[in-house]
Amino acid sequence: MLQDYPQFTDSQIARTDSTHIWKKRFITLAEFLLIIVMLQAVLALFQTHEAEEPVRYRILAHSDAPADQAVKVRIQQQVEPMIAKALATAVTPAEIDAALTGLEAEMLAAARQLSPDRTITLERKNALFPAKRTGLWISPQDTYDAYVMTIGSGKGSNWWCSVFPKVCYDEKEEEDEEPVKFFVWEWITSIFA
After folding, report:
1. What pTM was estimated for this model as a whole?
2. H helices within 10-159, ranges in order?
3. Residue 49 burial (CB < 10 Å; 0-12/13-18/19+)?
4. What string of DSSP letters covers 85-114?
5. From CA 163, how far away is CA 159, in angstroms rounded?
6. Distance of alpha carbon 67 from the chain centroid
7. What is the pLDDT along the chain (193 residues), one digit of tens a residue?
């Protein structure tokens, strides 16, 4: 049937030499690896990490004025150790909820002491959080269960963190985490090792 079309009889389609077969196999392997990488990326998009972060904490400053931002930082420095101390013994989500509920009045009192001229509210609700990069992990922008402390109008820059399993540690302190491994790369290196 190919002989009925003379333009294809001498072309690359009819070739079966070893160079052509090698190129064809290489392209097939490259396509396969690309599909595997794309699948891994899609799976990473749909992973949920809610079990790791049942509650978040957020402080909204009154404004972006340096004095209001300084108040926010002082409140954050007062509240963060309280949360860390309360969560030191909590293991399950129910224990975490109980510990944080018990802390609400203490956190509000500490915040009101540092900013007596502004109204301060603390509420637990589903709040929208921006995307945040911590090491190699990127937390997507989403609504999370959170304690939101609002100072005054709450229109200034905010500070936020994950309450559990860790409380706002610097990225430098996270160096002891297990290195990230990609199964495709591990598979390829095991073939050629």
Report:
1. 0.56
2. 18-45, 66-87, 93-114
3. exposed
4. HHHSS--SHHHHHHHHHHHHHHHHHHHHHH
5. 12
6. 30
7. 556 666 655 555 555 567 778 888 899 999 999 999 998 888 777 665 544 556 788 888 888 888 888 888 898 888 888 888 887 877 777 888 888 888 899 999 999 998 888 899 999 888 887 777 666 667 778 888 888 888 888 887 776 665 544 445 333 444 455 677 787 888 888 888 7
